[in-house]
Amino acid sequence: MSMFLLTCSSSFAQKNELKDLEKAVKKNNITEASALINQLENQLSNATDDQKAAYYFYKAQNEINLANNAVDVASNRSKAIETINQLIKFENETKSKKYSTDIAEIKNSLLSQLVDEAIGNSKNKDFKTSSRLFEQAYKLNTTDTLYLFYAASDAANGKDFDYAESKYKDLVKLNFDGKGNTYVATSQITGKVQSFGADKKARDLAIKNGTHTKPETEFNKSVKPEIYYNLGLILLNKQNYSEGEQYVLKAYDLDKNNINALMNVLMLYYNTNRLYKYEEFAKKGLEQFPDNEVLLYNLAVIQLGNNENEKAKSLFNKILANNPNHFESLRGLGNIELQKDAEITNKINALPNTNASIKKRNELMQEKKDVYKNTLSFYKEAQKINSKDQGLNDLITQLEKFLGNN
Fold it and tell me: Alpha-carbon distance 274 to 84, whole Å?
């Protein structure tokens, strides 16, 4: 008999504490509710399924209340997301639907709040905050992987590359494509359009519950090329070529019309000294993008690095044929011309100090002047386009001073 009374006493105490917890949550008394949750947590193993469900339900609400009262906002939202998902899973496993409707409303409200804040922070270029908010939105509604994509993209925009890398890798593991339908509806609370991702049931339930109106369906194109491109670029910039190669090549295969994807491939092979592969893709690029300034200029710079000045000149001139005001090409041609000066100077310095050398010295000095004049012709054209380049302005001044004194 004593054992029976003891069991009943514990059960009733639990019921009373749950009622007290319900009252505290409804009154937004976060201190009292938090204390009761801690007490109930120790008794949870002896609770009935209904009591466990109630515990998760009120715990989630209190964690949201804590966040809304500015108490460890990010942490308590994460806890609320975990608790909401735990309750949904628990009710699915126990076939109970006691809190299904109410928790769906709470979930949708929190999701709307997270997404609205994420969008606001993204617009204000606070990408670190927006990326974390989008990730929380994804964890709350994992059927909408688009939120994870937004988290990765905003992290990349904010130059938070380590975080962006981890999220892009998550997207690759999920084989996320992004192509398909997105289900949206207008929130009655905020008046803004909220995305439910690919979860049509959640959107329709929100409409049925009256929390949202104006259901619409949007079609999204594939973002897989962007995922592989950005991940590849991050790894290239970290000089992690061995890991980055698979993503760089995949990005190019997915979108051969993306000049930047091709440039990543060229960067990969150039920096890993596989010039035969570099030449192979450079040839493909020139066939596909014969007049693309970005490709032509980058190829010219690489040719300069290989001391292939004539090839670089040809590429610079090809750019200028289509765009006479291409500053970098004009300056590049000037730089190539000026390189001749070093050889001439060495020849002058090597001449013996004799009367017989005077004629040769004068010839070389004339060559030097001609080089400077040719260089100035390119530099001054470039200066007309960008007169604020101080390095260029200083070079022009030095060359003109030499010519004026000689």
Answer: 52
User: In 3D, which of 182, 284, 176, 269 has the Cα closest to residue 231?
Assistant: 176
* Half-sphere exposure in the Cβ direction for 37 (13 Å, CA): 23
pLDDT greater than 70 at residue 127 = yes
Angle between helices 241-254 and 259-271 (to 10 degrees): 150
Report the sign of the C-alpha dihedral through residues 224, 228, 234, 237, in that order: negative
The rounded Cα 51 to chain-centroid distance in angstroms is: 43
Q: What 8-state DSSP symbol labels residue 351?
A: S
What is the C-alpha to C-alpha distance for residues 399 and 371, in angstroms, rounded to an integer?
Answer: 10
Q: Report d(CA 300, CA 307) in Å as an integer.
A: 10
What is the identity of the amino acid at 75? S
d(CA 406, CA 401): 9
- Sheet with strand 212-220: strands edge to edge: 193-195, 180-187, 212-220
Residues, the chain = 406
Residue-wise pLDDT for 189-237, tens only, equals 888 888 887 788 889 988 988 889 999 998 888 999 999 999 999 999 9
Question: How crowded is residue 240: how many other Cβ atoms within 10 Å of its Cβ?
Answer: 12
The span from the CA of 283 to the CA of 41, in Å, is 67
Q: For residue 334, which amino acid is it?
A: G
pLDDT tens for 5-56 read 333 334 435 678 889 999 999 999 999 999 999 999 888 888 899 999 999 9
For residues 269-285, b (16+ Cβ closer than 10 Å) or e, as one string? bbeeeeeeebeebbeeb
Choose among 72, 234, 241: nearest CA to 163.
234
